[in-house]
Structure formats: C-alpha cells, structure tokens
Write a structure and sequence with these properties.
Two copies of one chain form a homodimer.
Chain A: H1 5-8, H2 11-15, H3 22-36, H4 48-55, H5 59-71, E1 75-78, E2 82-85, H6 91-100, H7 102-108, E3 113-123, H8 127-133, E4 141-150, E5 153-163, H9 177-183, E6 190-199, H10 202-208, E7 215-224, E8 230-239, E9 245-250
Antiparallel strand pairs in A: 1-2, 3-4, 4-5, 5-8, 6-7, 7-8
Helix pairs in contact in A: 3-5, 4-5
Chain A binds a DNA duplex (30 and 30 nucleotides) through helix 5.
Chain lengths: ~250, ~250
DNA sequence: GTAAATGGTATTTTTTTGGTATTGTATAGA
DNA sequence: TCTATACAATACCAAAAAAATACCATTTAC
C-alpha cells in the first residue's frame, strides 16, 4: 500500500542526509526507510512521479536513486504496476545461488525444476565430515540427499552434510537449505567449490538414468562462517550431457 | 568517495611538511595520505577547487602538486569526473589467473608445468567465432592451440581465438596470452565461463593419453572489455581424472 | 477494448570537474 | 641592473556527470 509521503521524504530526512548529489541523498533516505521498517517487505513505494513532486526533484533523479537499490536487490520494479520492497532474501543465499541454485538455473533456462528427497537424517559424522566440518566424534551431523529433476528428467544428485549444531533437525528443510540456516542466523560468508569431471558409477548412473561410465560433473562445496568455521559440506553430481555450470567474474574496476 | 578535507589537508599537515614551495608541501601531504592509507585505492580526491580553497592557495598550485603524483602513477585524473588514487596495473591477468592459469595452479600443487604449442595462426573466422567475438566475415582471427603438461603428463588441451584487431600476429605469444594483450592496452574486465563434463572423443583422448570415453572437464571462457565487446574465446579440455577446478567465492560482507 | 496509472527510455540542459592559456611576481644568476 | 626562470594567480575551455524534459510501453481497472 502507498505510504504516507511525508513520513519518508520529509525535508529534514532529505537535507539531513549529509553530502553529495541529490540522487545519493534520496537513495540514502529510501535505504534508511527500508532498514528501519518504515517501508516493510512487499510494500509498494509511492509512484515515482509522486516522490519526485514531493521531494521537488525530477522523476529521473528519483529513478536513479531507485536504480541503485534495485541493483542491490532491496527494491523490485514491476513495469506498469509499481516499485516494491523486495522480499529480504539474504545476500548469502543470493550470492551462493548465483553459482549453484538449481531451481533458479533451471528457471533461467525455461525449465521447471523440482526435487525428490532421497534421505533426511541425523548421524554420527563420517571421518570426512569430522575433518571438513571440524566435528568431534561424539557430535552429530545432519545429512540431506535429494534428486534434482528438471522437466521430469533427473539431472543431479545432491548430498549435504551440516553440523548438528547448526541444524539439529534436518526434517525442517523443505526447499532451500540456505534459507533454513538463515532463519537460525547462520550466515556463511565464504565458500570454496571444487569442480571435477568423473565417469559415473552404477548406482549414480541408474538414479540419473544414464549409462554407466557417462561423464558427470562433480561439484563439492564447503561454506564457512566469518569466523572461519565450516558450516556445510555439499557434494553434487550433475549429468554431464545436460548441465552447464556457468560462472561470471568481474575483474578489477572496484 | 570524497574524503573529509580537514582529515588530509589540516593546517598542521601542510605547515609541518617542512621547507620548500607551496606545491611541494601539498604534494608531500598528498603522497603521505596515500601511503598511510587515509586515501585508499580508487578513492576520489576532493575537487581541485575545494582543495585550493581549503588550503588557501590557488587552484593551479594544487594542480601542480597533483601533476607530479600523476606523473609518478600514484594518482589518475579523469576529465570531468575527478582525480583518483591509482590502482596497481596487471590486476587483470592476476584476477583472470585466479580461475584459470594452468601454470600457477600447477605450481600451487607442487608440480612443474609446461606447454607445447600445437598451432598458432591467422584465419578467417568460423561462424562460432563471428558470433561470439562479433566479427565481420572479412576480418581475421588469431588462433592459438597448446597442450598443457604437468610433470610430463599431458593434462589439458587449450584452444584460444582472439579477434585479429586485438592480436594481429599470434606468433608473438610465448607464454601468457593475457600478458600480450595487456601490452597492447587491451584489458578485459569481465569474463564468463561455462564448465561442463563430457566424454572424450578419440582425437582429444589420444592427445591426453586417456582411453576414449573418459570423463573430461570442458571449460569455455569469453572475456569482455568494459565496453561489452568480446576480446577472446577459449575452449579448454582437462583430463577429468587428474584435474580439479577450484573456485572461491566471497559472499555479501555488506 | 479503452483509459488511467505506472515504470522505461531517449534527448537536452545545467552543473561539476579537470585542462589550458595568459598574466603577474619574486628570485637567482650574468 | 637586466634577464631568465620558477612560482603563483586569474580567466576561460572541454569533458563528464547530474538533473530535467518529453515521450514510449506495459500493466491494471473498468
């Protein structure tokens, strides 16, 4: 719903924003309003024209301020409809998704994606898990395995191991593991991925419906907290004939 | 970001600079600010007019101080935009290397790496090259192919295509393609990689000394200039049994 | 289907910022 | 003293960013 303009764009807020170009001040004002909760998730911003009139600047200036926030994922624009406060997807999930979210990848390729859970359970850690996640022998680990399916074709097998401390009950995870961790204030800030090619063994090949020996793309990911502590360890095996892994890198520039 | 003037050009700093002409004092002050980190890489200096006013000298004097630092490569000026603290060059190659430099990767793993050139030449572009590099039919393209070898074991085949405009003579490339491009002031700022798994065909398998059908890691990379123009297109095929591709990602921070 | 409301874009104008030519002034050396 | 040079100030030029204007395209309500 449309907010009260004066609540957000009061002259004090605009002028008090400190230094810099108009659109920077406006951007700061908006950012603040979202952060403080004057604008809540899903809320519509007032129309650009109204904001412009009230703030006594041109509409393009308003747009430039909004542009930045849209780029940051704080706001979402819908042509002909309005501008809205984005659902606060955490940076963590967004960035990790960029490289690995199966669902988003498939959507981008025009396919419908779903999952079939193969396993959810709590276990005593394997030697590998103890090493990688830094667990003691008397702790627990949550394991989640699923089959990723796109357009009714099985495309990947995914095994995730999470320290029991961060996820005591794996059954609560329905779609996104990262969303669930986020709920618990567990926010990895760094991840390392190892990508390699392998010929498929019988069990995996059967699940994915390809001949034994077919090429598979193996992706192992470990994600870490700011403290350096490992949170999660995921091994995925993609069908080589049906999946490309795309990474984009920006160089220098700052 | 514009720095706080008083933090850098405080009267004490200016007078304390010792002896000499005004512009020398100013230069020392600026140099110090950069060295100490009060001004960081990429930071914008305040406008010359502001500095002049604050330091109570003429703008030309400020310019003269800045001139020297620009000549030394410490600062960079952009007409109409501002003056910025320079960034060390050769970032390009370093950053691209992070993901793909075979030699460095091998060194990190304690292996000695070398290459064998399979081909260097100038050709009329293939349809793929025309599409990807945005070339006309009457232009030329440089192709470079080599076999990457680690500890005397062939590990990868690499085919690079560069628009003839950026590299008219491929024979000048001896080790690093990016170093050669850098020499010509061609600096890609963005790259997209596509990674996939494939079963090897006979020709490639033979070169790499593995059985036909063995899993291979295929990496295709396109790198772009700031303008969006594609510079180079590289297809690599790694032995799946002997090479892991590692990517590290930093998330959010905010 | 039409009209109103909303975001999208191309073009122009204004402001900001570095670039340059000209002039004045003090200082060192012949 | 006279002159060449380094230093500094003034005034104006040019490129880039910021802002405003005018018009286009999509969605939604009726």
């Amino acid at each position: 719903m449309t907010e009260d303009l004066s609540a957000i764009f009061s002259p004090e807020r605009l002028s008090g924003g400190g230094t810099g170009p108009l659109y920077v001040k406006l951007r700061r004002t908006l950012e603040e309003a979202v952060k403080v909760g004057r604008l809540k998730q899903g809320d519509a911003l007032p129309p650009e024209r109204d904001i412009a009139e009230f703030a006594a600047v041109s509409r393009v200036t308003v747009r430039k301020a909004i542009d930045d926030l849209v780029a940051e994922g704080i706001l979402v624009r819908r042509h002909g409809s309005g501008t809205f406060v984005a659902k606060p997807v955490s940076k963590v999930e967004q960035r990790l998704s960029q490289l690995t979210s199966f669902t988003e990848d498939m959507a981008r390729r025009g396919m419908t994606a779903r999952s079939e859970w193969l396993h959810k359970g709590i276990h005593t850690p394997s030697p590998d898990e103890m090493m990688i996640l830094g667990l003691a022998a008397d702790t627990k680990v949550s394991r989640l395995s699923r089959l990723r399916i796109a357009d009714d074709q099985p495309l990947a097998i995914e095994h995730a191991s999470v320290s029991g401390e961060f996820l005591p009950d794996p059954s609560v995870v329905t779609t996104s593991l990262y969303a669930e961790l986020e709920k618990r204030q567990v926010r990895p800030v760094r991840a390392v991925q190892r990508i390699s090619a392998t010929n498929m063994k019988e069990a995996d090949a059967e699940l994915l419906g390809v001949p034994v020996g077919a090429a598979g793309l193996s992706i192992e990911r470990i994600s870490y907290l700011g403290s350096g502590r490992a949170v999660e360890f995921t091994r995925s095996l993609y069908r080589g004939d049906a999946y490309d892994f795309v990474a984009e890198l920006t160089i220098g520039a700052n």
